[in-house]
Amino acid sequence: MKRLWWLLPVALVLALSGCFGPEGNVYLSFDYPYYPDNWNCDDPNIDDPFAADTLYENYDYSTVAGDYYFEYTYDSGANWYWIYYTLTANKGFLFFPGEDARFQIYMYSSYWPDFYQVQGLTSTPSASPSGTTSSLQNHEIPRVDESTHVRKQLGEYTITKGGYILKVRGGVWVPKE
């Protein structure tokens, strides 16, 4: 034991120099009052939206960190609710992997969805946090027909809590009058 005293300063130097271990796994799940009529997600790790009943409730889909787009409808296409969100992975330390990050999207039947981190570094965020605007980019062309629907943004926030960042922007596509 006495010969290993030098490991402490080496570990400290590595940590201070930004020597991170592998990132933790990232998971996304969905919760809803009842199964949506249609949905679309640009995350390639989420099942095919055109297959029947593939959006499993409270199932942890293994995915990767990044910015994504998700939309869904409950009323046969009249209103489509949409959300841009960012999934982040927790960094590891030295050769230890980071803690897993678990996120959830709750799909309301008459309002844009909530986005939560249900497992993070040190704490769980409160529902519907308020904060400053995010910088999420539109990186996916929605499946909603823009000739028949108008896009309305209902909310946007960025929150840093417990060592992680949640970025969300969402709204609804409503039929043109």
How would you summarize what this structure contains?
With 177 residues, this protein is mainly beta. Helix content is 6%, strand content 37%.
Distance between the termini: 77 Å
Integer count of domains: 1
Tally of separate helices: 1
Residue ranges: pLDDT <50 for 5 or more in a row? 121-139
- Biggest β-sheet description: 5 strands, antiparallel
Helical percentage: under 10%
The ordered H/E elements are HEEEEEEEEE
Strand content: 35-45%
Main structural class: mainly beta
Strand order of the largest sheet: 2-4-5-9-8
Mean pLDDT: 73
- The coarse silhouette is elongated
Number of strands: 9
Tell me the radius of gyration: 19 Å
Structure notes:
The structure is a single chain. The chain has one domain (21-175). It has one helix and nine strands; from the N terminus they run αβββββββββ. It has a five-stranded antiparallel sheet with strand order 2-4-5-9-8, with no helix packed on it. Strands 3-1-6-7 form a four-stranded mixed sheet, with no helix packed on it. The protein is 6% helix and 37% strand. Residues 121-139 have low confidence and may be disordered. 25% of the residues are buried. The chain has 177 residues and is mainly β.
Keywords:
1 helix; mainly beta; 177 residues; five-stranded antiparallel β-sheet
